[in-house]
Amino acid sequence: MHRILLIMFIVIFGLNFSSFAQGDLLITPNRVVFEGNKQKEELSLVNMGKDTTSYSISFVQRNMKEDGSFVNVEKADSGQMFADTYLRIFPRRVTLAPGEPQVIMLQCRRKNDMKSGEYRSHLYFRSEKTDNPLGMKGSANDSTMLSVQLIPIFGISIPIIIRSGVVNVSAILSDLKLESINDSTQNLKLTINRIGNISIYGNLIVEFIPLQGLSYVIGILNGVGVYTCIDKRNITIKLKNITGKPLTEGKLKVKYSSNDDKKTVMYAEAELELK
Question: What is the pTM of this model?
C-alpha cells in the first residue's frame, strides 16, 4: 500500500523594524500614541509580496530588555499597565492581493478609573499562507517516502500606547565609551536613563568636534525608545569616520531628541572628551 507522510514545519518570525516591512507587509504608522483627546487612528497596510496573503490581527504583550530586544509576557511587571483592554481594532483579519492596500481602524476607549501614566500593548499582524503543501512524488512501492515543506509564517508587532492623566518624562545620557573595532571602525556605547511615568522615544545624533575645524555628524540612530518596563537602555552606535583613522584630539557630542516633525524636544545631551 502506497503511503505518503506529509510534515509541515511552521517558522514564526517576530521582528520589529522602524520602517515596517517584514514578511512582505508594510505598515504605516509603525507606532501609535493616544494622548489628549485622541480616540482613533487609521493604519495603512500594503501587501508588498507576490502572493495573496491573509493576516490575522491581535494584541500581544511585550517587554523591552535593556539591550533593546523584546520578550513576550503574560503578566504586567510592577509599574507596567497593558493597553489592550481599552483598545478596539477592526477588521481583525484581512486578505490582500499583491500590491493591494487596506486601511484598518484602531479605537481607544478610555475609562474614568485609569491611572496616570502609560498603558502599552503591541498590535500583532500574523500572516497566514493558504498554499496547500504537495506530497513528494516517488515510487508507488516505497511506503516510507517523506514529503517536507517549509512554510514561513511571518509576524510583525507595533507598539500601541495610551497616556492618561499627569505624565512626565526626561532622560540622562551616561557611561559614554568609545570602542575601537579596527583602525577605521569605532562604536560609541552609552546608556539612556529614563526618568518619569511614561516611555521616551526619539533620535540619537553623534557629532565630532575637532580641536580645529568645523564639527560634523558621524553617527545617527533613529527611533530609539525606552519603555516603562525598564529605566535604562544600553545603546551602541556605529560611527562613520570620513578620515579613516581613529578619532582623537576633540570631543564627541551626543544629542537625544524627539522625532516629532511638528515640535522637536531635546531630551538630553552629553559629551565625551577624546585624547
Answer: 0.81
